[in-house]
Specification:
The protein is mostly helical. The chain is built from eight helices and no strands. Keywords: Membrane, Transmembrane, Transmembrane helix.
Length: about 210
């Protein structure tokens, strides 16, 4: 556990890089590779050429997010009462919901097509909610510490994430490529604050050593 608390920033940084690069490794934006997949989750559907690779990728990433939870606990444990447990739990919940559950349960034609589509959607929703909650908590901490520039960035990421999630749930955007790009941007925007924290802590780790 000590190792995870100390070096978990490297794990978190690595898994964020994996998640950001996933669409490119899975040929998500290529018609030949994705076979008209609009959402990342559809890469794991039956019949998709990257189904097995996608599921393995997400299972690994989900596990890595869970392994990084002790680092988040240690990083924020002195901010307020139960803050360590809150941040550690949220990053683990994201790994379980948006990675493990989306890998284990196939997404169908819609959320209510069958029970595993419902569980897939539930996991994805809970995971996205956990990321939003992390950014909200970081924003509150930044306000309390008068970290104005950091607070502005967090506010932009939080609003951008909410807007992106809202647009993905509406029928306002019909272009398939636009929907695919929007989903990736939505996730990357939500990743950014935690990614920057892990990046800074990773730098400090090597400087101290």
């Amino acid at each position: 556990m000590r190792i995870l608390k100390k070096y978990g920033c490297l794990i978190l940084l690595f898994v964020f890089l994996r998640e950001i690069s996933l669409p490119f490794f899975m040929n998500f934006f290529s018609d030949n590779g994705s076979h008209d997949a609009v959402l990342l989750s559809q890469l794991g559907q039956n019949g998709m050429p990257m189904q097995i690779a996608f599921k393995r990728w997400e299972i690994i990433d989900g596990s890595l997010f869970i392994f990084s939870a002790p680092y988040f606990f240690e990083r924020f444990k002195n901010e307020f009462k139960f803050s360590g447990w809150l941040f550690g739990s949220l990053i683990a919940i994201y790994g379980i919901g948006d990675c493990l559950m989306t890998a284990l349960f196939n997404y169908g034609s819609d959320y209510f097509a069958n029970w595993h589509s419902l569980l897939h959607a539930l996991g994805s929703g809970i995971g996205s909610g956990a990321l939003l909650a992390i950014n909200l908590c970081l924003l509150i901490l930044a306000w309390q510490k008068d970290q104005n520039l950091w607070a502005k960035l967090l506010g932009i990421c939080l609003l951008g994430g909410i807007l992106g999630g809202f647009l993905l749930e509406t029928d306002w955007i019909t272009n398939k490529t636009a929907i695919s790009v929007l989903q990736c941007l939505f996730l990357d925007i939500l990743y950014l604050p935690s990614f920057l924290i892990a990046l800074q802590d990773s730098k400090n780790l090597f400087i101290k050593n």
